[in-house]
Amino acid sequence: MKSQDTPFEGGPLDGRVLPVLLGLTGHPPKVYRVPVPDAAGGPPTVLVYRRVQSARSKRLGLHQGWKYTYDPEGRAGGGPKWPWSGPRAEGGATPESHADE
Question: Which pTM does this prediction carry?
Answer without folding.
Answer: 0.68
